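As agreed, record copied across for absentees:
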Amino acid sequence: RTRTTQSTWGPRENMVDFQVWIPRVFAFCCAVAVLSALSRPDYNVPLFGFAFFMWRLNNKDEQFKLTVFMLFTFIIDLAWIIYWGPKWTKEGGVTESAKWEDGVHRFSLALSIINLIIKFFLVGLMFVTSRGNPGAAAKPRTQTASYPGASGLARPSVQQGPYPGSRAL
């Protein structure tokens, strides 16, 4: 989705709405973590699943807490890769019967590194998006009339609930 925002230098057209894209990145990272869990117990699967639903509540305080928690898990993932990476990629010492396991370990390690890189950029994006007016929910979206003869005045759209298809009370 795109939106128009007001900046110091005037309106910016077609700015990407990161509030919409962040849950999509959570879902993608969850899928990568599922594949990574082939050879390691990966806490990223429930983490990204939880973050997917939590982010969509649009509570800035909760989003900031989730951002700090994601930063903490980034550090844990980095420590895991630093510890297990060299052990799973060392040459030699692999018996003929364990070659399949070596391949699974390398695959899992590669996906863990991909997830770590995405999480690094995601934490930065979450921080930028979640700061602002703490405790306030996101403003309701407005839409302008676009039919011929319309005045072009913005009117509030139907108040949406925290999940798609739900309505606010």
